Amino acid sequence: MSPLLCARGLSKSYGPRVACSGVSLDLHEGEVLAVVGESGSGKSTLLGLLATEIAPDAGQVNYRFRDGTARDLHTLSEAERRLLMRTDWGFIRQDAMQGLRMPVSAGGNVGERLMAVGHRHYGNIRETAEDWLSRVEIDPGRIDDTPKTFSGGMRQRLQIARNLVTHPRLVFMDEPTSGLDVSVQARLLDLIRGLVSELGLAVIIVTHDLAVARLLSHRIMVMKGGRAIEAGLTDQVLDDPREPYTQLLVSSVLAA
Amino acid sequence: MTARVKLEQVSKAFTLHLRGGMQLDVVQDVTFDVDAHECVVLGGPSGAGKSSLLKIIYGNYRCDAGHVLVRDGDAFTDIAEAEPRVVLSLRNRVMGYVSQFLRVIPRVGALDVVANAGRESGLDADIAKERARELLAALNVPERMWNLPPATFSGGEQQRVNIARGFIADLPVLLLDEPTASLDAKNRAVVIDLIEQKKAQGTAIIGIFHDDDVRERVASRVIDITRFKATAAA
Predict the structure, then answer these.
(1) I need a surface site. Which of B55, B58, B130, B146 has the fewest CB within 10 A?
(2) Residues B35 and B45 sit within 8 Å (Cβ to Cβ)
(3) Do the chains contact at A215 and B85, CB–CB below 8 Å?
(4) How far apart are the C-alpha atoms of A116 and A108, rounded to whole Å?
């Protein structure tokens, strides 16, 4: 089986500053890849390039569609790209306010994605939304409240429900747990871990937190200065890091 | 005989870049086979590289040179060169690893921690749960604790949950890194029984045991890995 997502030589500079330089990767169905590195290492730029939110200076990203054809994502029309984002993909953002529609009710946030893929029956949409709220451990009684009234952890869980309700094949996550209290973080990680394996999702998760990478990912890619300097099986890279920078990262983690 | 695991000239050294590139030789040119129905015990003093060698076989540590061949059906896969998803698939279907330490997952109860390991290896959900109960009971983990997350358990209790987790699946290869360390005599005897059962079923076992009584009971043969130290290491 060919990879679901296949990136080759992705590069992007902002003026003289190189954000991402010659990054290649393959992702198969059901695989969770963590991209780790310090802030400024280029990991969020890489995520933007893969998700077609940023146009690359060089390189390409091929994606295998449900009909089996692979296409270069950066040659899609805007309409095709938006359809892909709404149906086959999810994107869970660090800042829930960017990933949610804040003035719209929780049920509306989830239902909107369903309507985007053609669901029309109000009762069914509401029922599915209720079901997803309880799957992400939000009291379905809050379905008509807006996320403005939700805590940070609840907003992230609502974002997850909104993204997963259409059964995407690939989900991008940008620091989904940072900025949350540790106990809230643990609960969210556990929820993500369960849903990812239950739904067999392919995930690319950007995180600076090696513990998050260890808990969620199968593979890891370490970025520094816009380059992928080391990649491999997550526990292998974390337990037997080869590159000087990776050894520094791993040894810098504070043990609780 | 049908070798389940073949090590061919396996070599490993660590380069510590944060210590000025200091080189630590671990093992050199390790070569041996392990067949079904046998338990090969790695011998040698602490620091000889026994645990590192087990981790290389499991793919947790990289192999610098040589081959780590693990039988998957009729073919061998070289762990030293396999892609991550191939190694992960082998870990689910072919080889298990039990250490003394449980890596706890928040919010998952002990019984589910054990049963999930069985499910991941392909056991039916009901059978996995049933076996998880049997193993936890055999290892004297009190039933009232089965639904609690092991994060709150004592070290010894976590270790026994981890052993149950490692022994639930019917995998052809089992790697044991001191599973009996710091267990009391009663539970040590339970683990010896579990190992004997696995051997009888045909599992190929590679293990490290510091207790002489355990080693004598379970070892089919002992391989002294100081034989494989780099000659220049002095």
Answers:
(1) B130
(2) no
(3) no
(4) 12
Closest B-chain CA to A185: B106
Complete DSSP assignment for A38-54: -TTSSHHHHHHHHTTSS
Instruction: Look at A31 and B85 and tell me if their CB atoms are within 8 Å.
Output: yes
CA distance B84 to chain A (A): 5
Q: Is residue B163 part of a domain?
A: no
Cβ separation B61–A236 shorter than 8 A: yes
Q: How many domains does chain B have?
A: 1
| B60 vs A contacts (CB less than 8 Å) | 235-236, 239-240
The pTM of this model reads 0.92
Q: Cα separation of A22 and A8, whole Å?
A: 7
CATH code linked to domain A1-88+202-256: 3.40.50.300
Is B233 in the A-facing interface, judged by CB distances under 8 Å?
A: no
Q: Residue B31 falls within a domain, yes or no? A: yes
Contact B62 A242 (CB under 8 A): yes
Domain presence at residue B150: no
Residues B167 and B135: beta-carbon distance below 8 Å: yes
Quick check: A186 and B106 CB within 8 A?
yes
Q: For B105-114, B190-199, B201-210, which range has the lowest pLDDT when averaged over its residues? A: B105-114
Per-residue pLDDT reduced to its tens digit, A50-93 = 999 999 999 999 999 999 999 999 899 999 998 898 889 999 99
Contacts of B177 in chain A (CB under 8 A): none
Q: How far apart are CA A111 and CA A101, in angstroms?
A: 12
Closest CA to B114 of B154, B160, B80, B78: B160
pLDDT digits (tens, 9 = 90+) for B17-72: 989 999 999 999 999 999 999 999 999 998 899 999 999 999 999 999 999 999 99
Q: Which residue type does A20 have?
A: C
